[in-house]
Write a sequence for this structure.
């Protein structure tokens, strides 16, 4: 079996378990390939806005089981609430063994103050009447993701690469681009005021790592992206951050070995 990568800290967000767009199988492969000392789930892990008893497949449940398993095996798991799982906020500061529930997190990473939070506090569309519209928009986005999945299924059959039409549509909307820029700037400016070295968000589904500077100082802004379209996480090791991006090819050897083991077992039983 392939050895797990030991990483001091992993941050991931916007998994949206319970929606058609969630890439749960890919996330499970990633989680099984790492052994972090700390795993920060930075919001929107379970999508309670779209939660339905009629759609929560085994692959989604397996992600939750793997996270619990990692916690039982010594990984400190911190679940920071987002807007899609805001119902959990009334249980903030809950601690059970290695599992914690929080609204935000402040860490000292090798002498550098690090501020981690989901980021929906900067988004007016998650409040009041706008929240209702945002939920309706989320349903439309789920439908777009489902259609995109069907298109990609045909593209794979034809031997062509997958394409994210939903991401292309989002990126082509000027207001969305403007919002992302304002979001990053706001998070960075507040972090500079608070004298943080790193500020880490989720929420906008855009993986990012860049230094932001103004007349008051500078900060490293990071965003963990999502597991709907980008399939990304943040990894911190040897005093450096990097954006991890899932690539199916990295796991093909492992899948082939597992298939061979299963086939060998079946062959022995039948022979």
């Amino acid at each position: 079996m392939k050895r797990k990568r030991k990483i001091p800290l992993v941050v991931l967000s916007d998994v949206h378990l319970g929606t058609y767009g969630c890439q749960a199988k890919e996330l499970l492969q990633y989680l099984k390939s790492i052994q972090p000392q700390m795993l920060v789930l930075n919001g929107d892990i379970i999508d309670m806005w779209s939660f339905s008893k009629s759609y929560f497949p085994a692959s989604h449940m397996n992600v939750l089981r793997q996270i619990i398993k990692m916690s039982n095996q010594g990984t400190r798991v911190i679940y920071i609430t987002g807007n899609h799982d805001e119902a959990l906020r009334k249980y903030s500061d809950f601690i059970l063994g290695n599992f914690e529930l929080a609204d935000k997190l402040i860490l000292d990473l090798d002498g550098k103050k690090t501020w981690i939070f989901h980021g929906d506090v900067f988004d007016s569309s998650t409040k009041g009447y706008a929240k209702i519209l945002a939920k309706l928009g989320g349903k439309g986005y789920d439908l777009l993701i489902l259609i995109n999945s069907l298109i990609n299924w045909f593209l794979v059959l034809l031997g062509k690469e997958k394409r994210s039409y939903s991401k292309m549509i989002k990126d082509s909307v000027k207001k969305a681009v403007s919002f992302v820029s304002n979001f990053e700037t706001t998070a960075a400016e507040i972090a500079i005021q608070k004298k943080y070295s790193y500020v880490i968000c989720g929420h906008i589904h855009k993986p990012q790592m860049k230094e932001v500077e103004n007349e008051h100082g500078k900060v490293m802004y990071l965003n963990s992206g999502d597991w709907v379209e980008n399939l990304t996480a943040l990894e911190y090791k040897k005093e450096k951050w990097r954006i991890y991006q899932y690539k199916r090819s990295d796991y093909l050897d492992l899948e082939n070995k597992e298939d061979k083991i299963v086939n060998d077992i079946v062959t022995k039983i039948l022979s």
